[in-house]
Specification:
Helix content is 65%, strand content 5%. The protein contains 16 helices and 5 strands. 28% of the residues are buried. The protein is rod-shaped and about 190 Å long.
Length: 619
C-alpha cells in the first residue's frame, strides 16, 4: 500500500517540475538506447545466419563420398558420423529459425516502438515548450507593468515634492502654485493607474504560473514519464522474447544432441572388425611348413624319372646345351615383355577387353575366392532383378499387343511387335548371362580343394615342384646345370610372379589404367618365345610334350569344358564344349588353370580360363 502511494505521489510532474531540459535529454537517451538494443539484435541475427551457413558448409565439406562398395559394407563409425552430420545440419536449421524469429518478433517490435516513442516525445516536448513560452510571455508583461508602475510612482513623488516647495515659496504666484498642484494630481492619478495595472498583471501571472507548474507542465512530464516507462517495459519484454526464441528451439536442439549421443552409442567396434574381415577376406588357407631338402640323400622321384627317361628312346631331342626342345614351358618369365611393342599393345588391349567397368574381370576370377563369391552373388542378384524387370516389361508389351489385336481402334499391333522382339532378345541375353553367373557361383561354392594364397604357391613351387622337376631331369640336364645354366623349369616356378610383373610393366609403359590386370596367358604378355636364358624356343600350341615330363607333373584331376574357348595368344590352348582334359595346375588366383590333353600331334599343355571349365580333383 505504501509502495502504491509512493508510486502515485512520486511523479515527474511533481518531483521534476523544474527539470524540463534534463527530462528531454533523458528521454532522448532512452530512445537511443533501445535503438542500440535493436542494433544488437540485428547483429546477433546476422551472426546466427552466418553460423548456420558455416555449419551447413561444414557438413557439406565433410560429407563422405558415396560408393557402391561402401554402401554395402558401411562401418558403424561411418554410419554414426553421417548421422552426426545430419544432426548438425538440423542444428544449423534451428539457428536459422532463431535468426528469423529474432528479426520478425524482436527487431521489428523494437523498431516500431522506437518510432512511436520518438513521435510521442516530440508532441510532449512541443506542448511543454508552448506552455513555457506562454508563461514567459506573461512574466514579460508583468515586468513591463511593474516598470511602468515604478516610473509613474517616482514621477508622482517628484510632483508632490514640487507642489510642496511651490506652496511654501511666498515669492510664487498663486497660479504657479495651482499649476504645481494640478501636475501633482495628474502624476498621482497616473501612478495609481500603473499600480492597478501592475496588480492586475501580477494576479494574472501568478494564476498562470500556478496552473503551469501544478497542472499543465506536470501533465507533459507525466506523459514523458509514461513514455520512458513504456520504453523500459518494452526493453524488458524484448529481452524476454529473445530468450523465448531460444527456448522454443531448445527441445529440437536437445533432440539433435540426443541424436548425436545415440549415433555415438551405435558405434560397435566388433561389428566394424567383422566388416573388415568380410571386405578383405581372401578365403585362402595359410601356407604349410616348407619341407627340409636333404641334398645328401637321393630323391626317389629323381631315380624314377631317370629310368623313364632312359626307356624312352627317340623322344629326347636335345640341343647342344642339353635342353629339351619339345619340353613345354609352364609359364614364361619376366623377359617375355621384350618381344616387341606390337605384341605388348595387342596384349594390353586384350586384357582391357576382358575387364568390367569397375576394373575387374567379368567372371571376377582375379579376386580371391571369398571376394569372388561375394561379387558373383551380387551379380546374380543384380541380373535376377534385371530379368524380373525385363519380364514385367515384356508381359506389359504382350498385354498391349493383345489389346491392340482385340481392338484395332486403340492402336496398331505392329508398332508393339518390334519393341516386343527387342524385349524378348534382351530377356534371352539376360537369362543366358544369369545362367552363366549362376554356374560360376555354383562352381565357386562347390570347390572342395584347399586353396593357398599366391605367395604360398610360389613358396611351394620354388621349394617342391622346381626341385622335383630338376631332380627328374636327364643326365644331359645335370651337365647343363653343371655348366651354370638355368633349368627350363625355373621359368615355371617363377611364372606367376614374372607374368604379373610383365603385365604391370606393359601397363605402365602404355598408360593403360585398370585394376584388374592378371598374369594370364590370354593377355599375351607372358608367353613370348624368350623366357629365361636356356629355356629354348617355340610355342606351347605347336610342340608335343616329352613323356618324362608327365611323370613328373602328375594330373591333379580332370575337367570338362563348359564353353568353347579359342586360344588367342601363346600359352593358352583351345578347347571345345564338353571336351575332357587333365588338370596339371589349379588356378592360383589369376583366373587361369593349366591343363593338358592328347591330340594327333601328341600331348599338348597350356592354360584355359577357370570360369570356362568344371573341375573334378582327385582326393
Amino acid at each position: 500500500m505504501a509502495a502504491q502511494e509512493m508510486d502515485n505521489s512520486t511523479t515527474w510532474g511533481k518531483e521534476l517540475w523544474d527539470q524540463f531540459d534534463n527530462i528531454a535529454t533523458h528521454t532522448q537517451k532512452g530512445i537511443d538506447f533501445i535503438e542500440r538494443f535493436g542494433g544488437f539484435i540485428r547483429d546477433r541475427s546476422a551472426i546466427e545466419v552466418e553460423y548456420a551457413l558455416k555449419l551447413r558448409r561444414l557438413v557439406k565439406n565433410y560429407q563422405p563420398k558415396k560408393s557402391k562398395e561402401d554402401e554395402e559394407n558401411e562401418f558403424s563409425s561411418l554410419i554414426a558420423f553421417k548421422n552426426v552430420l545430419k544432426e548438425v545440419a538440423d542444428l544449423a536449421g534451428q539457428r536459422e529459425v532463431v535468426a528469423e524469429n529474432l528479426q520478425n518478433q524482436v527487431l521489428q517490435g523494437i523498431l516500431l516502438l522506437a518510432k512511436n516513442l520518438r513521435e510521442e516525445r516530440k508532441k510532449a516536448l512541443n506542448q511543454g515548450a508552448t506552455l513555457t513560452q506562454s508563461l514567459h510571455t506573461q512574466i514579460g508583461t508583468l515586468d513591463r507593468a511593474k516598470r511602468s508602475y515604478e516610473k509613474a510612482f517616482r514621477e508622482a513623488e517628484k510632483a508632490i515634492e514640487s507642489y510642496h516647495k511651490a506652496d511654501a515659496d511666498f515669492h510664487l504666484s498663486r497660479a504657479d502654485v495651482e499649476k504645481q498642484r494640478v501636475n501633482m494630481n495628474i502624476r498621482n492619478s497616473q501612478s495609481e493607474d500603473a499600480k492597478s495595472e501592475y496588480a492586475n498583471q501580477l494576479q494574472i501571472t501568478n494564476k498562470q504560473q500556478q496552473q503551469h507548474y501544478q497542472i499543465a507542465l506536470p501533465e507533459v512530464f507525466n506523459r514523458l514519464q509514461e513514455l520512458d516507462e513504456k520504453r523500459t517495459r518494452g526493453m524488458k519484454e524484448f529481452i524476454k522474447r529473445s530468450a523465448d526464441v531460444e527456448y522454443e528451439v531448445s527441445p529440437i536442439i536437445a533432440h539433435c544432441l540426443e541424436g548425436i549421443v545415440k549415433a555415438a552409442d551405435s558405434i560397435n567396434e566388433k561389428d566394424d572388425s567383422m566388416i573388415v574381415i568380410e571386405k578383405y577376406q581372401s578365403g585362402f588357407q595359410p601356407p604349410g611348413d616348407i619341407p627340409f631338402e636333404d641334398l645328401s640323400k637321393p630323391d626317389p622321384d629323381a631315380a624314377n624319372n631317370s629310368q623313364t627317361h632312359n626307356s624312352s628312346t627317340g623322344l629326347n631331342h636335345m640341343t647342344g646345351k642339353g635342353t629339351t626342345k619339345d619340353k613345354l614351358k609352364k609359364r614364361v618369365g619376366i623377359f617375355g615383355i621384350f618381344t616387341g611393342n606390337k605384341k605388348i599393345l595387342e596384349a594390353c588391349i586384350n586384357v582391357k577387353n576382358n575387364l568390367s567397368t569397375d576394373g575387374l574381370k567379368e567372371d571376377f576370377s582375379d579376386l580371391p575366392p571369398t571376394q569372388r563369391r561375394k561379387k558373383l552373388t551380387a551379380k546374380v542378384q543384380e541380373l535376377q532383378q534385371k530379368v524380373a524387370q525385363e519380364q514385367a516389361a515384356s508381359d506389359g508389351l504382350m498385354k498391349m499387343k493383345g489389346v491392340y489385336e482385340a481392338n484395332s481402334m486403340l492402336g496398331d499391333p505392329r508398332t508393339v511387335e518390334e519393341q516386343l522382339n527387342e524385349s524378348v532378345n534382351r530377356l534371352d541375353r539376360l537369362r543366358h548371362e544369369l545362367l552363366r553367373y549362376q554356374k560360376l557361383l555354383e562352381q565357386a561354392n562347390n570347390q572342395s580343394f584347399i586353396q593357398h594364397s599366391p605367395q604360398s604357391n610360389r613358396v611351394i613351387q620354388n621349394g617342391q615342384r622346381s626341385s622335383r622337376h630338376s631332380n627328374g631331369s636327364s643326365n644331359h640336364e645335370n651337365s647343363h646345370e653343371d655348366n651354370g645354366e638355368d633349368h627350363p623349369d625355373d621359368a615355371g616356378s617363377l611364372s606367376r610372379s614374372a607374368s604379373e610383373s610383365s603385365v604391370q610393366q606393359a601397363q605402365n609403359g602404355l598408360n593403360i589404367n585398370n585394376n584388374g590386370s592378371s598374369a594370364s596367358p590370354e593377355s599375351g604378355l607372358g608367353t613370348s618365345h624368350t623366357s629365361l636364358p636356356g629355356s629354348g624356343q617355340g610355342s606351347t600350341n605347336e610342340q608335343p610334350m616329352n613323356e618324362e615330363f608327365y611323370e613328373a607333373d602328375t594330373p591333379l584331376g580332370t575337367c570338362r569344358a563348359l564353353y568353347p574357348f579359342d586360344a588367342t595368344s601363346e600359352g593358352s590352348i583351345p578347347m571345345s564344349e564338353g571336351e575332357e582334359l587333365q588338370v596339371i595346375e589349379v588356378d592360383q588366383g589369376d583366373g587361369w588353370t593349366r591343363v593338358r590333353r592328347f591330340s594327333s600331334k601328341g600331348w599338348e599343355e597350356g592354360f584355359v580360363p577357370t570360369s570356362y571349365i568344371e573341375c573334378t580333383l582327385y582326393a
